[in-house]
Specification:
Elements lengths: L8 H11 L47 E2 L7 E4 L7 H15 L4 E3 L10 E10 L2 E14 L21 E7 L13 E14 L9 H7 L5 H35 L1 E2 L3 H19 L6 H8 L5 H29 L5 H15 L4 H7 L4 H23 L2 E4 L7
Parallel strand pairs: 2-9
Antiparallel strand pairs: 1-8, 3-7, 4-5, 4-7, 6-7
């Protein structure tokens, strides 16, 4: 599937609803513990490109010039999902998440020399300038050689070494390492190879009270599953709201006629390219360089075509919602708007309003104008969705 370069406007319109439900399995006993320094975070992933960063563009004209509104109240919407949480979903999610974080059972082997692919049991201490640094030490740590779990040179440095041997590894942390105090630093890891083991496939994972207490900070499996249930319910409510609004927008595009002005479309595409370049063309890189690195050598012409297609779809939705807002006399109340901005800042990781506005335009002023327009569109969409005849758990084409 062709990778989308820009998020559609719809994402911005419904983001407030989607962001409202936090991950309730975190906080009390999140399975992912503090990561040891020197390891690579392979479970959480690295979402370095934040969704929503620079995907919105400023400025539309009077929507009434370009939109002929149809019967937008009382839309009939059908969704196949019931958005109800079942016992099987709870059990499956609880089991899968526990297994994901569970340490396998291991058994000893007779191997004495470390090879690529071996599971080694090690003790290690990491030191910078002769001083052990935080979260740089462990005892009885299992490491699969070749898994690329530790910083470069750590695993390779153990290959060919013998069980019982202690090795000093002179290594350097990556310049972009997440801990700024260690980024680019020269360090020494002193590693003792305790033994070479292998996974004991005969031992099956068991989800019990002892496991959830150790890994999730819950006293019992029932308490853990109750937390999973609440998380899934919140997630389903968020998905329900998002899916409903998606379906409502699809219906609006059917009943309303929109003519997107070419000049406005071109303006938006140009602004989108500028914002993309601002976010990605750093350290002297050109747009061509970025497209080669991130999008398999996509040509600028094709890049602009894809942006144009996405932007035109976005504009149609935006203009429809703006026209409805005008028709219904929807106004912005500052207190409500400020709460919306704070919520979007929190979900997007923005520290200041100015940073959030700049991410939604070429500067803070144009960004704020656009965010206000999106907020008004959100209120219009809420109004239409509240008055829609929505049925769940039926075929999408049912009446």
């Amino acid at each position: 599937m062709k990778k989308k370069i820009l998020m559609v406007l719809l994402s911005a319109v419904v983001a407030a609803t989607a962001a409202a439900c936090a991950d309730s399995t975190k906080g009390k006993g999140n399975a992912q513990s503090s990561k040891t320094e020197g390891t690579k975070d392979t479970k959480a992933g690295d979402d370095s490109e934040k969704a929503g960063s620079g995907d919105a563009q400023p400025g539309t004209e009077d929507a009434g010039k370009y939109v002929k509104l149809g019967e937008y109240m009382g839309l009939k919407v059908s969704l196949s999902d019931t958005f109800k949480v079942t016992k099987k979903q709870i059990d499956d999610y609880a089991q899968n998440m526990a297994e994901y974080y569970a340490e396998p059972a291991y058994k000893d082997t007779d191997k004495k020399v470390v090879e690529d692919g071996d599971v080694v049991n090690i003790d290690y201490v990491g030191k910078k300038d002769g001083v052990a640094f935080d979260r740089g030490s462990a005892k009885g740590q299992h490491l699969t050689i070749g898994s690329d779990s530790f910083i470069d040179g750590f695993e390779d440095g153990l290959i060919g070494k013998k069980v019982g041997q202690t090795v000093d590894l002179d290594l350097t942390f990556p310049e972009n390492y997440q801990n700024e105090e260690l980024a680019g630093a020269d360090v020494v890891f002193t590693v003792k190879i305790n033994k070479i083991e292998e996974v004991d496939e005969s031992v099956k994972f068991k989800l019990d009270d002892a496991f959830v207490k150790k890994n999730f900070n819950y006293d019992t499996v029932d308490e853990y599953k109750e937390n999973v249930k609440n998380y899934l319910k919140n997630l389903n409510e968020s998905n329900k709201a998002t899916s409903t609004k998606n379906a409502v927008i699809a219906q609006l595009q059917q009943v309303c006629e929109v003519s997107v002005p070419e000049e406005l479309l071109k303006e938006r595409v140009d602004e989108a390219v500028k914002v993309f370049e601002k976010a990605n063309c750093v350290d002297g890189k050109t747009l061509e360089d970025v497209l080669n690195e991130k999008y398999q050598g996509m040509k600028e012409e094709d890049f602009r075509k894809e942006i144009t297609t996405e932007t035109e779809t976005n504009l149609k939705t935006e203009l429809i919602l703006e026209a409805i807002a005008q028709e219904e006399g929807i106004k912005i109340e500052e207190d409500e708007f400020n709460k919306y901005v704070q919520q979007m800042m929190s979900s997007g990781g923005y520290e200041t309003e100015e940073a959030y506005y700049e991410a939604n335009g070429t500067d803070a002023k144009s960004g704020e104008q656009y965010v206000r327009k999106i907020f008004t569109g959100t209120k219009a969409l809420d109004l239409v969705a509240e008055n829609a005849d929505v049925k769940y758990g039926v075929k999408a084409d049912a009446s």
